[in-house]
Structures are given as structure tokens and as C-alpha cells.
Amino acid sequence: MRRVKSGVVGYARKRPARLGMLALAGVVSLAGAAQAAEADADANEIAGVQVNGQRKPLDTDTGLSVLPTTVQDTPQAINVISQAQLKAQGVNTLEQALRNVPGITIAIGEGGTLNGDQFKIRGFDAKDDVYIDGLRDFGVYTRDSFNYQEVQVLKGPSGAMFGRGTTGGAINTVSKTPKLDDVTILDAYVGNGDYYRALADINHQLGEHSAVRLNLMGSSTGVVDRDLVKSDRWGAAISVGLGLGTDTSAVLSYLHQHDNRRPDYGIIIVQKPGDIVALPATEYGVGVERSSYLGFKNDVDRTDADVVTLRLSHKPESWLTLTSDSRVGAYKRYFQYTTTDQCNTACTTALFDNNPATEAYGGIGGSGPYDQDSWGAQNISTARMDFTVGGLKNQAIVGLDVSYQHNDKQFYAYTLPSGITARTAIPHALVNPDPNFPAGYTVFRPRPGVNITCPTSGACTTTLNGATVATNVTAATTLSTKGESTDLAVFLTDRLWLTEELSVIGSLRLDRYNAELDTLLMSGAESPVGGLKVKSTLKSPRASVVYEPSQTQTYYLSWGRSETPQGTSVVGAGTAVALTAKDLEPEVSQIWEAGAKLALPSGRASFTASLFDVKKDNALQTDPGTGFLVAQSGERQEVKGLELGLTGKLTDAWTVSAGYAYLDAKIKESYSNCTVPTSTSGTPTAVICPVGVTAAIPVLNTVAVGQQVAYVPKTSASLFTTYDLGRWVPGLSVGGDATYQSKLNVAYTARSVSYADRSTLTAARLAQVPESITLNAFAAWTFADGQRLGLNIYNLTDRLNYTQVFSNRAIPAAGRTFILSYGKTF
Length: 826
What we know:
mainly beta, Maltoporin, Chain A, six-stranded mixed β-sheet, 4 helices, disordered N terminus
């Protein structure tokens, strides 16, 4: 017996996957000659196969127009954090949600990337690979989770679906949308560390096929055992749905989030005299506490995000589905921050000499504050066609993806204290740091020719209280930037069933990406190189073989490729395009992945496994005159790994979501800029340029080659579990979660062996962050009238872990935290 699901020919013994090729309305006529799938619908079938009255854990739609299928049917590793798990854990940001996903690390946001949500998937940068409902979220900010229905992480190069970037994968958040029901959910949270949070979720059915939903959030939170760190946020999300449950639907939504927080750049990583390995200063017991805030209380990160999204879907025929998703996002930000990321020989000597009379002073780094105004727009239009080819079932998707980004940034400057000639020379104590600005240290907006004077060499000056004082900038420092990019892409995917169980999938996406950056200097002059432009044509193919012998088994083998052009981070990077990178070809990454997704015998839990090999090639540029390498866009890397997952109900009362990742991530090539010595006596402390070579020429860093890729844990694991005690105490459930992450290598610093032998390098500094083990617990009690009480305890053991890392800093996690919650459903 045959049956139809969503207009696709299916079979009684097997649910067909719903992946195929998308098509634009303008090319739908190409499929007009194809025979449409016709059959009577099975009245008992609903979205998702039912097993003992419950949906299989992986039989949930991705919600993506470019991937209109289920997690079970998608031939790549996908991690899903459900709404139930988000609520049980009391998650309030995207960062917290992603701590459930092995293989993801969070960077502080420095060294060319902006502070905010800076994620790495399998060690590959994913700062530009964050999506909301399948469309790009263009901004860089700390995303609150109040409007999340679930969070998805699609791992591996995903350029065929999402376009540029996505070397490690893509992060997609699924928003709460209107439903045909009347329900109101209110929640309030209070805890130590000055934690206060309130949520409202109000859904109202307007008509037979229309509804409106409003989500509100107010939050004022500190961090236990982190002095001065705080965030005051509020947000609102409203969405209206028309034609819900019909063949033609529209959902219009608007999201606003405001955040006023004090950024946390963590604890400096220091190298004890005589040691090669450097660790966070909190690891040595020398007086640098986990609570130490090494910035200034004047630091501020103030952001506003406004995002409007329209999602349209139309099914004119049983074999044809059209979608058009559009977004406009506007983002404003004022960012003023302080990093303490230098501890020279005098600093380390004072820190480790066990003499309370000496004080260790670190050096301040980072650029000046800035005002940022950015916005982006995107439209993805698709058409999916289900038809037969030579008697074989086929699904096809063809689509068009058009996007634009624009970013204006205005930099500020600092006046320097008396006697200080550089911001890096301002002494900042590592033990008992003073959070107040030193006398004479202020922020001002420089206006060339008005309140700032910049000589051709040396530091600029300004007038403060009638006196001329030094600033932290020079004539060549950037005053403002203007960046923009356009991306026009077409994509096509086809899935052909060779037999009832065996299918093949082929995808291809072509992008034409253009980026441009204009720079104005503190001197008031245009950058001497003028506007920097990048034009790239990106090709992202993918192929898969899928074998599904039953409803509950999927086996696959996939190959895919993604390309990352220069200038891809118009909004997310400190400098979107560099002169040395403007002529480089895109970075290319490719993946082989084999996997299985299996339901356990009970049918209520699923097991997943995947083996993969990801290679990222570096883009290099060589000076044709000298043959020396003059620029590189990144390391050449290879990551081989294994990921395992288990999710679902093991018994009627016991629910589990667990994951494990082993990542053998090796650096194949890495480069360090060389320096020209002012003296050739003693032992070099850096990579010395060969004789006759100018400074800043990249030299192969043999110390890093063969080492684990920075920020990639060798092993990581997570476990979330709940147990329903309703059999004994109606409405009571308990649970908890545990996460583990092995140590992180975050930097490999090399130096020349000697001035005579400059080509041989040895390790000067290996920076590491220790392993992390976190245990959390919760209990929730739901009453018959819709009221509920909850208690979450985070970091039960009060262990010193680190939540975000960079090459010379790490942010300590919160100490033991108690959050009490109360909710009511109407």
C-alpha cells in the first residue's frame, strides 16, 4: 500500500525523507512536465511517525526552507537542544544553550573579531554562521534565548545550504511562532549573584487559521564570583501568523533586544619563569582570584538589535511547495572595553617571587572604544518539487539567496595619564586590581583638525582642561570605517530514490560575493591604500548516499565543500578586509562524513554516530619578486573525529540527552610574522627574520605544526537527564546535567634558536586552559492549576572552570549558583 505525506509519494513500510531540490517560482515550469505524485492521504498520519503514541526523538523538522526534512533524514551530524531542555536548565543566552553541544568552544572575541557571541565548531570560526529561522543574524551581540523554540547545530561544511563560511557548521535558532491556541505562560527567576529575570509568552488565536504571539523578557543578572560583571537586558518579540495549517501561510515577526552590560575579558594567561607552559593566573595561587575583574568599571557594551522577518509558504499543487523568507536587521552598538593581556618579565617576576612588597602590573591592550551602526537584508526564495523520473521518486529544490550588509564604525580615543606615552604602559595590578580609571585617563571622540593633532610620526595629542596631553593613537590609527558586501547565490539540490531504501543526493550552490571597505585615518586622510575590494565566486557542492532500511534506521555517506572569501566579516570582524588579504583566494574546506541514526528497540530514544574528516586549506600569497610569503588567511588544518549521541526516553519516566565528541585536530601549516632585531646578542625571544628580509614576513611556525588546533578540545561530552517522580509525588521531576571538556591549547609561540640559526625554531610559550568539568542539578514541581516551582543549582562542586578563551586570556565560570523560579500557565 502506498500513501502520500506532504505531497510526496511514500510507502507503508518506510517514511520517505523530505529532502530535495528547491526551486524558484520562475523555474517551476521546468517541472511542469514531470508527473506529480498523486495518492490518497492517510488520515491517521501526522507530522512525524508515531511510535507507541509518541514521536521519535529525531523525527522533527529542521524548519529550514533550504533543508525541508527531518533530523533523522538529514545526512550530517545535527545536535538539537529542545525547548523542554532549555527551560529545565534555565538557559538565558545562546552561549549557555551551546554548552550542551560537544565540539563547540566559545572565544572571548579579540584578535580581529568583535566581542559577543563568538563560537567555534570543531575548532573552526563560526562567528558569521549564526542563523535565526534559516536566515542570517547579521549582528555581533550576546543573544538572549527568550524567543527560542529550539537550537540546532548542523555540523560540517554546509556551504551547499547556507553559503559562504560554515567550515565547522552552522548554528540555527528556531523562533517561537504563533499557534492555533490561547495560552499565556509567565515565569520569574531570582538567585544569588544579583540574578533577576522575568518572561512572558502570550499566544492568542485570532481566527480559524490566524494567531498572534508575544514574548517579553526583562533581565538583570550578575555572575557569582566575578566582580563587577553584569548585564541588564530587555527584549520583545511579536509575530502574527495567517493561513496557519493551510496551503498558504504567512508569518511576520519583529524582534527587539536591548543589552547594557559590562564586558568580561577574563584573567590573563601568564608564564611562570622557567616554564614553557602558560596558564591562567588563577591557576597558580599567587593572589589572582577567580573574582578578579581586570578591566575598568567604566567599560560598557551597549547594544540594540531590531530584526524583522517575513516567512511565506504556498502549496499550489500537491507536488509543489513555494517559500520566500525575507529579513531586515538593524544593529547599534557602543563598545568600550579593557583587556589586561600583557605580563612582561618584571610582571612575572613580581607575581611569582612570594614577596608581598612587590606588585605585579600587567599591560593594557585592545583598541579604542567605538560606535557601530550596521544593518543587513536577505531573501531566500525556493520551490520544492516532488515528481517521478523514469518511474523513480524524486525531490528537487532550486532557490535564490540574495543578501546585503552594511557597517559604519566610528572609533574613539583615550587621553593618557601624565608621564604615560602609550596605553600599553599604563600599569594595572593583577592582584587586587583597582577598577577605577587612573587620573588623566579619559575617553574622547577625536576630530582631526578640531580636538586632535597628529604628527606624521609618534603619538597624537589633544587638549584636556587647557593642557596638551598624549593619546593612545597615531596618525595611522583608524578613525572610522565603512564596509559593505553583497552576495547573490543560486542553489540546487536533487534527491533520487534508486530503490525504496536507497537514495542519492546532489547539491550545488554558486555565490558571487563582493565586499568593500573604506578607511579614514586619525590624521583625517583616507587610508593610503584607498578602498579595499574583494570579489569572489564561491562553489559549494555536496553529495550524499542515504540508506534507510526501515522507519527507524538511517545510514549515510556524505562529501561536501565550503568556501570562505576574504572580507566575509563585514560586521563581525574588527577589520573586514586587510590589504595583505585582499587578493587572496577564498579558503576552502571539505568534509567526508559517515554516520548512522538509529531508534532504540523501545522506539522512544535514538542513537546517532558519525565519523568525519574535515580539511581546511590555507589561502597564501607570495611576493613574485622575492618568493617570500607575504600574507596568509589562516592555518592549514585537518580535523578527524567521532561523535556519538543518545536522546529520548529510556523509560516512561527517564529522559536522556547525551553527546560525546573526539576531535583529533592537527595543524598542518601555521605561520608567525618575523621581526628584525635591534641587537644580535643574547637569546632571541621571537622569530627573527632571515638576513635581508623586512619585518612582518610570515615564517612557517614549525612549533605549531602537528599540534592540536587552538581552541579545540581533544574530548568533550555532555549529559542532560530528567526523571519524572510523578508516580510518587504528582508533578515532581528532578534532573541535572554534566559537561566535560579536555584542556585547550590556545597559542603556540615560537622563537628562533639563535641569531646565527634563524631558520630553526623552538617553543617560547605554549598557552593552555585546563580541563572543564561542570555539574548542575534541578528540580521542578508542577501543580494541577498550572503553577510550578523550580530550583536550579549550577556548578554544584564550585569548581574553577573557564567559559571563554583566547590566546592570552580565559574567563572564569560562575561559582556555585542557586536560581529559584516560579511560573504560571493560563
